[in-house]
Amino acid sequence: MSACEEGIIAGNSGFFQSLWENYQDEIISAGTSLLWAVLVALLGFVLCRILKRLIFKAAEKISNADNSVARIFYSIVKVFVWVLAVLIILELFGVNTASVLTVLGAAGLAVALAMKDSLSNIAAGLMLLILRPYKTGDYVDCGSVSGTIKEMGLFTTELITIDGMYILIPNSAIFGSPVKNYSRNPLRRADITFGIAYGDSLELAIGVMKKLMDEHSGILKDPAPEVLVAELADNSVNLTLRFWTANECYWDVYWDVKAQLKPAVEAAGLNIPFPQRVITLATPVAGLNSK
After folding, report:
1. What angle in degrees, to the nearest 10, is found between the helix axes of 97-114 and 67-92?
2. What's the pLDDT tens digit per position in 242-281?
3. More exposed terminus of the chain, fewer Cβ within 10 Å: N or C?
4. Residue 243 burial by CB count (10 A; 0-12/13-18/19+): exposed, middle or buried?
5. Model-level pTM greater than 0.70?
6. What pLDDT digit, counting tens, does each position of 99-137 carry?
7. Closest CA to 226 of 5, 83, 212
8. 8 A C-beta contact, residue 80 and residue 88
């Protein structure tokens, strides 16, 4: 080792020794505070993991809750835990947390005024979480928007339409309009209307339709299916088939019954009329044969 390097090492050791002798208490205090800060951060990390596990387990035990609710509540709890951890760390280093909270409160008020629309979405999101009008996987109609709920958030809700379109809608728009949930109830009623000719037997048509519904395995017997005379229209007597089925197989039963209607009507000798109009000319037209 050269004399120059030895001089540098000796100078550095003297500097650190002098620093230790003059600021021994301050160094120990700062080191202790730093150690406690690291421990507080680790405790915050571990606490977040424990709370996450507890929140998701609690959500699994609640019948109306799903993972979206658990994620949202966990994100809120996580923010509070880390804010508390940061305040404790600042207190360890001698920072006046009361003044920090005052500044944060004033800044929060300013931000709240500037972001009132976003805050209204948060408030609406919390109300939707409390009222639970839908959950992930439900098919809903919210005003002019309809689709399957993909994910719920504090600010927005994600939907997928029946034709595969992605829709992101603010929570305030959902909370401010009626929500029609097609998936909530276990049973759902279907109404199918068709017409028979005025010359056909009404009793025969009703009997054929009742037999069709009684023999269908997807149609419930209680409530009992019905055949109602819906309308005496211009060209036909319109009948309505009304029956109940399980929600998960609603569309399969609906389309299957519709497909069986025409063969059943034709097999019974009934007719499904098409629209007709009788035109009477006030002035006869040359070349047309009158009957």
Report:
1. 140
2. 999 999 999 999 999 999 999 999 999 998 887 767 777 7
3. C
4. buried
5. no
6. 666 766 766 655 555 555 667 777 787 788 778 888 888
7. 212
8. no
The alpha helices in 194-278, defined as continuous H runs, are: 202-215, 250-267
Q: CB of 191 within 8 A of CB of 246?
A: no
**Residue 212 forms beta bridges with which residues?**
none
**How many residues would you count in the chain?**
291
Distance, CA of 291 to chain centre? 65
Q: How many CA atoms lie within 13 A of 214 on its CB side?
A: 7
Over residues 182-206, the pLDDT tens digits come to 999 999 999 999 899 998 999 999 9
Tell me which residue of 222, 228, 219, 221 sits closest to 250, measured CA to CA.
219
Question: Smallest Cα–Cα separation from 81: which of 46, 34, 129, 38?
Answer: 46
Round to whole Å and give the CA distance between 78 and 56.
13
280: phi then psi, degrees, rounded to nearest 5: -110, 120
The whole-angstrom separation of Cα 282 and Cα 289 is 14
